[in-house]
């Protein structure tokens, strides 16, 4: 089935006519620094989605750790440790080429999310890495985010999705396992059972 392209919105004027003016509250809530109220959200969040853009395209990457893992250095600066991963470093490659970033903070049980836009730099300063060491293991790098805009997003999306309702949790077995996906995409050069059996212990040992 081909998507219908007869009724596309392709101008700002048409978009404005469709949606109308933003509500006053949606304008007032946007500021260019980390207000103490917004600091509270950042410090409570154990998860943030990091969006970047570069020559290879867009990227949205999850970042998670204990609440407060993102440090509010001052009202214009956030520090984000880059923990162990798969070394694709898609986000970091993008930041080297284009420092613009967007962050979306999620807090379990809370409907509102927090959005931050700014510019990031990648630091490997030894003292900065040491500040974020966990169990004696420092991150490979730390993102220094200079804040340009901050605002909260109302809870409609969370309410519609019923995201935090424990009754909506999906049994992992109802979706393809990591091993199944990797085996199929590698034409079975990777063994599904081996991946699935080894992954839990490997993840536990390599969190930091």
Summarize the structure.
The chain is α+β, with helices and mostly antiparallel strands and 208 residues long.
Number of domains: 2
Task: Indicate the structural class.
Answer: alpha+beta
Largest sheet: 7 strands, antiparallel
Rounded mean pLDDT is: 95
Globally, the shape reads globular
Superfamily (CATH H level) name of the largest domain: Electron Transport, Fmn-binding Protein, Chain A
CATH uppermost class of the largest domain: Mainly Beta
Q: Could you tell me the CATH topology label of the largest domain.
A: Pnp Oxidase, Chain A
- The number of distinct β-strands equals 7
Q: How is the largest sheet built, in terms of strand order?
A: 2-1-5-6-7-4-3
CATH architecture of the largest domain: Roll
Low-confidence stretches: none
Multimerization state: single chain
Portion in helices: 25-40%
Give helix and strand order, one letter per element, not per position: HHHEEEEHEEHEHHH
Could you give the distance between the termini? 45 Å
Write down the Rg.
Answer: 20 Å
């Amino acid at each position: 089935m081909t998507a219908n392209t007869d009724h596309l919105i392709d101008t700002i004027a048409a978009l404005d006519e469709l949606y109308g003016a933003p509500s006053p509250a949606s304008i007032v809530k946007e500021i260019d620094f980390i207000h103490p109220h917004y600091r509270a959200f950042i410090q409570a969040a154990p998860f943030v989605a990091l969006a970047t853009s570069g020559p290879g395209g867009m990227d949205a990457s999850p970042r998670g750790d204990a609440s407060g893992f993102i440090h509010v250095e001052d009202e214009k600066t956030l520090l984000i440790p880059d923990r162990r991963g798969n070394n694709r470093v898609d986000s970091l490659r993008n930041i080297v080429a284009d420092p613009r970033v967007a962050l979306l903070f999620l807090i379990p049980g809370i409907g509102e999310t927090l959005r931050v836009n700014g510019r990031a730099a990648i630091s490997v300063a030894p003292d900065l890495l040491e500040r974020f060491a966990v169990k004696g293991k420092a991150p490979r790098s730390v993102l220094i985010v200079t804040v340009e805009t901050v605002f909260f997003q109302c809870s409609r999306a969370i309410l519609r999705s019923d995201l935090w309702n424990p009754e909506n949790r999906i049994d992992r077995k109802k979706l393809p396992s990591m091993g199944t996906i990797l085996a199929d995409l590698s034409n079975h050069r990777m063994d599904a059972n081996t991946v699935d059996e080894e992954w839990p212990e490997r993840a536990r040992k390599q969190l930091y």
